[in-house]
């Protein structure tokens, strides 16, 4: 009886008679083809302009469309390391199809990503527009939340101001001692070999401590400057409050005007910035989110516990889930129709207070209008959220108090709120109505799965680059690829469902 026959296995040394089409290597509905189709319709002129402005001589660069597609596809799959991306162009069929058998070195990939960060983040709005055109954004209810993402730095590289002062004194003492030893060694060698013969070099240990002291002083001076600016900003805010009270309190007008002048004079002593400074506020991101302010003393010196990281000075130690890490606070506004991110931003302030209004403004900027309802947890509550959200065209539903996860409040509020109630009572009443409870109940199932998909499924838990600017743009790229995956999966579902195909055609 004949033995079992096997399928032919082509030897690695045997060449193809006719080269096969790369499209035969992947299913027709593969994500790679979707990414390539999307990149074709994206506006990459910002990247093209930078490349075309360079000297045309020399080595030819890779096609920017290919590089964009490579990075977008990698982020969709949760591959963020430039080394791993470069290796995948050799080892994975999908990457080889996408690049057309080109293999950019990891340094080229990293340099391309870094050089065109702003252009990559601009893709977020273009992808969002594609999602809106596909009917995935309804702007009925949008949930806003934040999640801590680890900075490209270790928390062990952070140092408090008090320890900086202590370490500075210690290094100065050690350097003085080493200099004395070096001087003694020079004197002994002069006596032994003669003056000017074989002079003693500065010991390596002395140089190491000197370099360390120089870096320490740079960080210490930067923290002191940031603290002075924070104190000056606080004094200007106090002066503005005095101006408001002077305009409404006739009896104490003179006192408030005097206090306002005093606060402004103190602020001017600490900082060169004036009230009419045309630049962006020092403790506000370009998107309008509040940034971290170091705690200070009355005279503008850093609080002893104020910290600064030597690797990424703009990152901060934040608490998340009971653990502390060197993080950034990443914000996302998610539409409830298909979990599309309609706005995203990053701040280095750990609390979420003050982030809701800037995020709603970003939604309006990205989508042309505000959602009907905007929900957020208690961390976003401030007395101004309701009126400012209403001015932007949306109704805010923000929790005003924390509840245990197992707590179930079955009571519904009906009727009008108490007359003359404060903003917190009004918001609590609004959230506890039957309609408010139904809207707020959608918050968790809208925004929190998005963070789960980004952090758990794709594994984005650490930024690849340092600084708030880089973190902001990389976060927009991450959110853009999240939206692309949603668009891809919805498109596949519609193609596989005859009824959905009919609706799409109609």
Keywords:
506 residues; alpha/beta; 6-stranded mixed beta sheet; two-stranded antiparallel ribbon; 8 strands; 52% helix; disordered C terminus
Short description:
With 506 residues, this protein is α/β, with parallel strands linked by helices. Helix content is 52%, strand content 10%.
Structure description:
The protein has about 500 residues and is α/β, with parallel strands linked by helices. Helices cover about 50% and strands about 10% of the residues. The chain contains 17 helices and eight strands. It has helices at about 30-40, 45-50, 65-75, 80-90, 95-100, 105-115, 115-135, 160-195, 205-250, 255-270, 355-365, 385-390, 425-430, 435-440, 440-455, 470-495, 500-505, and strands at about 140-150, 160, 305-310, 315-320, 325-335, 340-345, 375, 395-400. The strands form two sheets. Strands 1, 4, 5, 6, 7 and 8 form a six-stranded mixed sheet that branches. Strands 2-3 form a two-stranded antiparallel ribbon. Strand 5 and strand 6 form a beta hairpin. Helix 7 packs parallel to helix 16, helix 8 runs antiparallel to helix 9 and helix 16 (about 470-495) packs across helix 17. The longest helix is centred in the middle third of the chain and has 45 residues, at about 205-250.
